[in-house]
């Protein structure tokens, strides 16, 4: 059973807050935890959490504890005691999958990022593709990146994910090609989701990556793709990926792959790829 999820103060935005929360959340049962600020307000005023209820508090980076609410103060503060720490590898977002997302139209933004988060993405790289209608320039880029991160954070809480996906800095096709070259040189596998590809993603995964082994021991965490830093999938914007971009990313080491006979929207393609990877690795 899972409980409403809230993030400890400052998490996962600052490393210091993440480490401090990890120390607090790994204390033994009965240890007192305070939840205030925006998360406290959301718990007390929005969700109307009451004394006696169980909630999950996380640092957004995999450390969490189920806690029983013992007191409520005002509209934005509660006190709880740890019932149990959470050590469940089945809830860890692994294997590590990065999705390069061509900037979608604003009316598809929330659905795109919510889907990626719910399906287990680890990192999202915004990509200013040549056919992206949306353009990030100057101060707008920082504001847009912050909005992307906020959407991922709320989606993680809604889906009760212990890891909040990280939104990387904006990439152009040139910087993306450099990133893919370094990623594949380190052993990662990069794929371009494209309707004209010959091989399917599932076939390519079977060729490139053995499924994760399963031991039946819930204390193990062998869900990671062995001997690689993970998988990267490139998703184009509404207008698709140009031939020039495909060629440049292929030269950097990415492999075009197909997601079935249908042409998927940018809001669903990344999530569909994550679903295929999750099944391949035995996470689903």
Automatic annotation (TrEMBL):
Residues 212-223 have a biased composition (Polar residues). It is found in: Cytoplasm. Residues 37-82 form the Ribosomal RNA small subunit methyltransferase E PUA-like domain. CDD domains: RsmE-like (cd18084). One of its GO terms (cellular component) is cytoplasm. Its EC number is 2.1.1.193. Its main location: cytoplasm. It catalyses: uridine(1498) in 16S rRNA + S-adenosyl-L-methionine = N(3)-methyluridine(1498) in 16S rRNA + S-adenosyl-L-homocysteine + H(+). Residues 206-226 are annotated as: Disordered. InterPro entries: Alpha/beta_knot_MTases, PUA-like_sf, RsmE, RsmE_MTase_dom, RsmE_PUA-like, tRNA_m1G_MTases_N. It is an enzyme of class 2 (transferase). GO terms for biological process: rRNA base methylation. GO terms for molecular function: rRNA (uridine-N3-)-methyltransferase activity. Residues 96-277 form the Ribosomal RNA small subunit methyltransferase E methyltransferase domain. Keywords: Cytoplasm, Methyltransferase, rRNA processing, S-adenosyl-L-methionine, Transferase. Pfam families: Methyltrans_RNA, PUA_4. Belongs to the RNA methyltransferase RsmE family. Specifically methylates the N3 position of the uracil ring of uridine 1498 (m3U1498) in 16S rRNA. Acts on the fully assembled 30S ribosomal subunit. This is Ribosomal RNA small subunit methyltransferase E. It comes from Corynebacterium choanae. The lineage of its organism: Bacteria, Bacillati, Actinomycetota, Actinomycetes, Mycobacteriales. The gene is rsmE.
């Amino acid at each position: 059973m899972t409980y409403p999820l809230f993030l400890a103060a400052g998490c996962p935005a600052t490393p210091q807050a993440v480490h401090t929360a990890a120390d607090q959340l790994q204390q033994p049962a009965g240890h007192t935890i305070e939840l205030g600020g925006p998360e406290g307000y959301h718990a007390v005023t929005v969700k109307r959490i009451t004394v006696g209820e169980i909630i999950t508090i996380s640092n957004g980076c995999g450390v969490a504890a189920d806690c029983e609410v013992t007191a409520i103060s005002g509209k934005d503060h509660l006190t709880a005691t740890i019932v149990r720490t959470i050590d469940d590898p089945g809830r860890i977002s692994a294997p590590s999958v990065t999705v390069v997302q061509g900037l979608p139209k604003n009316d598809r933004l929330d659905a795109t990022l919510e889907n990626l988060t719910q399906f287990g993405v680890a990192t999202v790289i915004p990509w200013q593709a040549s056919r992206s209608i949306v353009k990030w320039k100057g101060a707008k880029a920082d504001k847009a990146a912050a909005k992307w991160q906020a959407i991922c954070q709320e989606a993680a809480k809604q889906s009760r994910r212990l890891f909040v996906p990280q939104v990387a800095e904006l990439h152009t096709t040139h910087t993306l090609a450099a990133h893919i070259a370094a990623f594949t040189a380190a052993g990662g596998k990069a794929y371009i989701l494209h309707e004209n590809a010959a091989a399917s993603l599932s076939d390519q995964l079977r060729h490139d990556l053995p499924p994760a082994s399963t031991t039946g021991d819930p204390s193990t965490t062998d869900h990671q793709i062995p001997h690689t830093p993970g998988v990267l999938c490139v998703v184009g914007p509404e207008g698709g990926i140009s031939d020039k971009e495909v060629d440049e990313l292929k030269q950097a080491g990415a492999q075009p792959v197909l997601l079935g006979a249908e042409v998927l929207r940018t809001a669903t393609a990344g999530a569909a790829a994550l679903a295929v990877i999750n099944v391949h690795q035995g996470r689903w």
